[in-house]
Amino acid sequence: MSKVSIVLCAVVLLVVVFSSAEVAAAPKCDNALDLMSPCLNDYKKPAPSAACCAKTKEHVSCFCGYMKSEDLKRVFDRIEIIKMADMCGVEFSSC
What we know:
The chain is mainly α. The N and C termini lie far apart (about 55 Å). The chain has helices at about 5-20, 30-35, 50-60, 65-70, 70-75, 80-85. It has a single domain (about 25-95), classed as Hydrophobic Seed Protein. It is built from 6 helices and no strands. This is Bifunctional inhibitor/plant lipid transfer protein/seed storage helical domain-containing protein. Keywords: Lipid-binding, Signal, Transport. It holds the Pfam family LTP_2. One of its GO terms (molecular function) is lipid binding.
């Protein structure tokens, strides 16, 4: 078998493998309080729980929207959200 055939087979195999791999879905950002519920008990504590940090990492792409959520503003203030994310080791861009 020629080198070209081997390379072609390898490329086809890679395409098949990667096309069948599941892509992680982006989190839905439509209910800030529901998504941040693991953090409700951690609000203003010295350190957030592992569950809160896991949810924070999972939903980092939603944070700018959360900052604008009236429901979330009733429970968390912007500074506390940023501090919680920071304590969980999550950085997100300024909104």
